[in-house]
Amino acid sequence: MTYKSTARRAGLAVGLMAVVASVLPAATATATGAAPTSGPTAAAAPGWCPTAPGHQVDCGQEKRPLVAGKPRLGTVKVSYAVVRHRGSGPAKGTVAMNPGGPGETLIDKTEEITWALGDLLKDHDVLLVDPRGTGRSQRVPCGVTDAEYRFGTRAQQRAAVERCGKNLGPKAAGFTSAATADDIDAVRARLKVRKLSLYGLSYGTYLMPVYASRHPERVRNIVLSGAYPLALDTMARPSAQAVSTTLRRVCQRSVPAACDGERAVRDLATTAARLRTAPLTIPITTDHGVYKKKFTEDKLANLLFEAASSQVGLEPQKPSLLGRLPHALNRFVKGDAAPLRELVREEGETGSELDQAPYIAVVCNDYRRDWSKDASKAARWRQYRAALAAVRPGEHGAFSAKGFTEGTTDAGDVCIGWPGKDTPDPQPTKPALPNVPVLVLSGDLDSNTPDASGKKAAKQFRDSRFYSARNMGHVPELELSGCVVGVSSAFIRSNTPGDTSCLRSLPPIAVTPVRG
User: Fold this and answer.
1) Which of 295, 432, 491, 507 to pair with 378, CA 20 to 30 A apart?
2) Which DSSP state fits 512?
3) Mean per-residue pLDDT for 415-434?
């Protein structure tokens, strides 16, 4: 669950993994970047087909119904690339990935993924599918941009969601995790791959169980990293509580002691309360213009649980957003808003013109809500406010319930104006899942998909193992020692993670000292 290049829950990863499969006899060999010369995927390599040094890459497109059972709504082309293994003979498996979002792309990250999965690619192929509406797959826009959604107030976000749904009309039903899962399986069938080892990161940890429930006979094993369950908390309470836990941990582990964790949590509560009644206005400069960001309690929540979880542990010795937060919060409490303003400006220097249909439609179609999909908008508001009023004091840690939920881009009330007509029911939260080996990984400094959510994701499966990577954020594979990827690669090969001791010895992050 992440909001990066497209407002989203889960998705970042510099390129990592998602589906490993037992391949039937390998497709005919081709030169790097070329398509197979025979078999079901035979065709000239498309111009967008990426290269990966030392590897053959086969590419193609699969034409899929936009909405299953409704041919009048047309089709959508789904693009894929297969990075072939380096070794001789048939591949031992095929890894199919999803790096999160919804809406994160894969094909244009082929080189990074190849680097990250270097050891696994000795004997496994990697399947990269750009989900419908993203990357090299066909776009189905709804007229809401990333920058608009990212910098908007909560009311503006709700209005953008409603407009997106109206612009898509019946085509809104074409964006679901089930549709993406079926697209992946159609590509699998085209490539004549028997079984897949699913590797999902962030939102991919939601998508891959959906795939497993719809195509159980095609799953060999599963790795979920930065995970959350299908029955996600509609009020995002695990993330709210994890923010305080994370502040305590970074202070406790800093050497020499840079801050006091309990004081940092008190400073956070004071800052949230002040912003609730007296927001800051902060100009944000992007490639697409200057935005005046109204920095309220909800934007503070978003900064702390999403942005501050991103890339934690990638370069632990360098100052990070998370490591600078205790100092910035303390200075704000003492009347100096400059450090906090600077963090917001730095984080806000992104924002693209990418259309948000692949994000908005998936989360508004799939995730369960505190209202009935078939209720009127007025009735939905009554149902939602009743659910919000039922939240017990303290369940959102240092934040108010309203402030924190409005800081999410996929929970709370953001989808309340999404159309109920011509859209599917929410994704089932307890589907039948195959009894296959499952590995779930979390970073213990991740407030986006915290350990508590990862443990619930693991409990969805009968044969699962959960491990938390110390001092890592969202997602733990981003660390550069190879520890986390080594654990997941070992699991994909043998259904056992092997030696996991390195997960407990990753170095603490740098923390800006709090003075006085």
Assistant:
1) 295
2) P
3) 97
